[in-house]
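Dear Dr. L.,

I hope this message finds you well. Following up on our conversation about the binding site, I have prepared a predicted three-dimensional model of the protein together with pyridoxal-5'-phosphate. For your records, I am including the exact sequence and ligand specification that went into the calculation, followed by the structure tokens. Please feel free to forward this to your student if that is useful.
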Amino acid sequence: MNDRTAGVAGDLQHFEVAGRLTIDLAALKANWLALARRAEPAEAAAVVKADAYGLGIERVVPALSAAGCKTFFVAILSEARRVRAVAPDATVYVLEGPAFGAAPVFRDFSLRPVLGSLDEIGHWAAYCREISQPLAAAVHIDTGMTRLGLTPGEAEEIAGDPTHFDDFRLALVMSHLACADVPGNPMNGRQLRQFQAVRRHLPEAPASLANSAGTLIGGDYRFDLVRPGVAIYGGRAIATGDNPMRPVVTVEARIIRIREAAAGTPVGYGAVETLKRDSRLAILSAGYADGYIRAAGSTDERPGADVTINGRAAPVVGRVSMDLLAVDITEFEENSVQTGDYAELLGKQFTVDDLADRAGTIGYEVLTNLGRRFQHIVKDD
Ligand SMILES: *Cc1c(COP(=O)(O)O)cnc(C)c1O
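The resulting structure of the complex is given below.
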């Protein structure tokens, strides 16, 4: 390769991508440490399901391990194996438990299932008997989600016959809060009391109830281990008040065209927004295929999201396309915005949760959909 082609190859990454997604590992670690302090004297784990909420297991898990995190939760077995590959000594729980026949994989990779039904408990115990090893597992009690977990009735039933727990090691008893994002919701107290009551019937074991919101509520919700997810990634866990977490993700898209359009001109699919004044628009190279939620577009009746250019808000105009998005820069000083500049779609100023609010969804959905096409940049300082 001569110098000239090397230069072109170097530029290619710049020209080939629609935008860039920057992950701030220092903010990620600071968020986990803040939650860990909040959880004390309980241990803080980290939930890294869905590829660490879209940010990448292989970069998030080593960073959190370096910050001191020793316990990770994932949803499914393939995620657990990816965690194991980068965190050889960590404790790894698989929330969806073992599919029938998967127990040997859990043993081979030292993974712990979260057992959520009488059948799963029976299979795990039988496998442990067969190999004569009391492997560790968690048991999940359903106190109000009606998804996974033993009903309190089932928990009492097996508690009446303690031989259920003879063959494996009950390493954790857990449940999951349905409404902790609204701290005053009476459901929280009901779930707490039910969890405490069921626990008394079961063999003595460490307990875990709190997700991010439960960790921030603190107090009796902490038990021995907390399981924050979204707050580690900078998302808003509690619906009311300021979000105390540092933003972890910045998403920027390139401005690929700047154009003028007269009052009365429709913009985008469906012509759902018509310009009310002579306008200057910036067309950005990002759309719903990049995870920019389509419902964040605007119509004549309803404003959409904002993007940030040079520190200033520019409102989205019309529907979000698959790859493109129009924003209004009429009020920006002429020539202050150029083709080739980047516009910030998400960051400190207009956050993941701001976009979620405008699109009628939650920050979790925004995060886990981001950036299949973006250049990923990791910073850590
Ligand atoms: C996803 C999940 C968590 C983490 O929830 P956040 O609201 O993201 O903190 C904790 N526990 C269970 C069982 C989960 O499914």
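In brief: Confidence is low (pLDDT under 50) at residues 1-6.

With kind regards,
A. P.
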